[in-house]
Amino acid sequence: MPLDIDRIRAQFPALRRRVNDHPLVYLDSAATSQKPSVVLDAERTFLEQHNAAVHRGAHTLAAEATELFESSRERLARFLGAAPEEIVWTAGATAALNLLAYSFSNASRGRGGEPAERFRLGPGDELVVTELEHHANLIPWQELAARTGATLRPIGVDDAGRLRMDEAVEVIGEHTRVLAFAHVSNVLGAINPVAELVALARRFGALVVLDACQSAPHLSLDLKALDVDFAVLSGHKMLGPLGIGVLYGRRELLDAMPPFLTGGSMITSVMMERAEYLPSPARFEAGTQPVSQAIGLAAAVDFLDELGMEQVHERDAELGQALVTGLTAIPGIRVLGPAPGEPRVGLAGFIVDGVHSHDVGQFLDELGIAVRVGHHCAEPLHRRLGLAASTRASTSVYTTDAEVAAFLDGVGRIRAFFRA
């Protein structure tokens, strides 16, 4: 059944706002999504009724908190087609990617012993990324290369922003140890060919890291079926709270990796000279955990599951096509990424000829329309496309056809307003 957008919107308190005396049209969900009441209530109920430190204490609240925390992990695992032991809570996707990079760095210095040897890097080894990555999936690998002497190699994009698979075949080779790439571009809305890239990496035994931040809110994910070794996602982009993210990793890999953060709750025993660590996921969850945020993210996953991710994806694809088709029809607008009719999520980056993206954003904000402006933490991609910045509109399950129409009408008035 088609999604009941009116019923969905009624569950998002923020969408009742007015901005500059206009109804809020929120088209910045790729940056952070709005939260339904069930997510807000889940966090509030935990803090009001069950608040306690998890995995510590024998009292009732501690037991309740631990049960809620771990059941949230189980719910995320089901959503991603994974086992609970393969789900590590982090502060966000950026933290998850840094966890991987620093763990590999520790392995390269001999930490973790023989099981961690497969993560050891040095001169002659190569880390492969793409030219369209978010900085969070680029800079950690830059730093890892600098610490280990490995080489960072990019796969380029063409003038339309499409990943150059002919170049990927040349770049991914016998020296490739890690291939890290985004499932969906946060600038272009393009869906990258995961199966083809994974097959190239498997040919040479390279580890595959998938940035699923922009795919998790829009596509039905089965990480086992995708055959990736690691994946990261961000809770606040998929209707969940801020400050919570997920690292997925195949269990045998996580158990072999040396920890990144150390301290309480991730150990089996501690002596004055050394410590021994728990298996995953506990070995990567040192200290105080984002308990209420994890519970809120599980509520967001339940919300999406109730809608049905196939229906979410179908609706999202419709909105993406409406955005790109409408923008393409406006004179003086250059749309980035896939052309109308080509697969994309509900996200469209664009340029208004003669008008800076920040002016575009301010003009639309006067109409109550929220969009993102700048390089969207993807400066190398913008540089490759010959741009300093762009404007991005992005949708979610609560976006209406009328909001897309209002946005397109606003964009159509920009060049005349600025006399471009």
UniProtKB/TrEMBL annotation:
Entry function: Catalyzes the removal of elemental sulfur and selenium atoms from L-cysteine, L-cystine, L-selenocysteine, and L-selenocystine to produce L-alanine.
Pfam families: Aminotran_5
Enzyme Commission numbers on file: 2.8.1.7
NADP in keyword set: no
GO biological process: cysteine metabolic process
Domain Aminotransferase class V: 25-407
Cofactors (names): pyridoxal 5'-phosphate
Assigned keywords, A-Z: Pyridoxal phosphate, Transferase
Naturally occurring in which organism (per UniProt): Terrimesophilobacter mesophilus
Family matches, as PANTHER family: CYSTEINE DESULFURASE (PTHR43586), CYSTEINE DESULFURASE 1, CHLOROPLASTIC (PTHR43586:SF8)
Family: Belongs to the class-V pyridoxal-phosphate-dependent aminotransferase family. Csd subfamily.
Protein name (database record): Cysteine desulfurase
Mitochondrion is among the record's keywords: no
Highest taxon in the source lineage: Bacteria
Coiled coil (UniProt feature): none
Reaction equation(s) it catalyzes: (sulfur carrier)-H + L-cysteine = (sulfur carrier)-SH + L-alanine
Gene Ontology MF terms: cysteine desulfurase activity; pyridoxal phosphate binding
UniProt xrefs under SUPFAM superfamilies: PLP-dependent transferases (SSF53383)
Database matches in Gene3D superfamilies: Aspartate Aminotransferase, domain 1 (3.90.1150.10), Type I PLP-dependent aspartate aminotransferase-like (Major domain) (3.40.640.10)
